[in-house]
Amino acid sequence: MAEDEQNTQEGHQHLITKLNATLVSIVKQEWKVSWNNFISDICQTANQSQAKCENVLNILKLLSEEVFDFSKNTILKNHAQQLKETMTSEFSSIFQLC
C-alpha cells in the first residue's frame, strides 16, 4: 500500500515537472507578446499554499535557467535579451516571494 502511494506521488511529481517545462516553453514565446504580467501573475498564485509556492519557485528557476543559461541555442539573440531584461526588471516580485 505504501509503495503504491509512493509510486503515485512519483508519477504526480513527474507530471508536474513535465507541465512546468511545457509552461516555461510557452512563456518563452508568449511573455513579451501576450503575457507581459507572467511574473506577477505566477508570484500571486504562490501565496495560496506551500506546495504552490514551491512549484512557482521551481517554474521561476526553470525560466531563469532557460533565459540566462540555455537561451543561446534555443531562441534568437534579440528575444533572449528582451527576456533577460524583463526578468531582471521583475526581480522585485520574485524577491518578495522569497
Short description:
The protein has helices at residues 2-34, 38-45, 50-69, 77-89, 91-97. It is mainly alpha-helical. It has one domain.
Would you spell out the secondary-structure blueprint of this structure?
Blueprint lengths: L1 H33 L3 H8 L4 H20 L7 H13 L1 H7 L1
Describe it.
The structure is a single chain. The chain has 98 residues and is mainly alpha-helical. It has one domain (2-97). It is 83% helix and 0% strand. It is built from five helices and no strands. The protein is globular.
Kindly provide the radius of gyration, computed on alpha-carbon positions and rounded to a whole number of angstroms.
15 Å
Q: Unreliable stretches, pLDDT < 50, 5 or more residues?
A: none
Oligomer: single chain
Q: What string gives the helices and strands in order? A: HHHHH
Mean pLDDT: 84
Percent of residues in helices: over 70%
Derived from helix and strand composition plus strand pairing, the structural class reads mainly alpha
How many beta-strand runs? 0
Distance between the termini: 36 Å
Into which percentage range does the β-strand content fall? Answer: under 5%
Shape: globular
Number of helices: 5
**Number of self-contained structural domains:** 1
Largest sheet: none
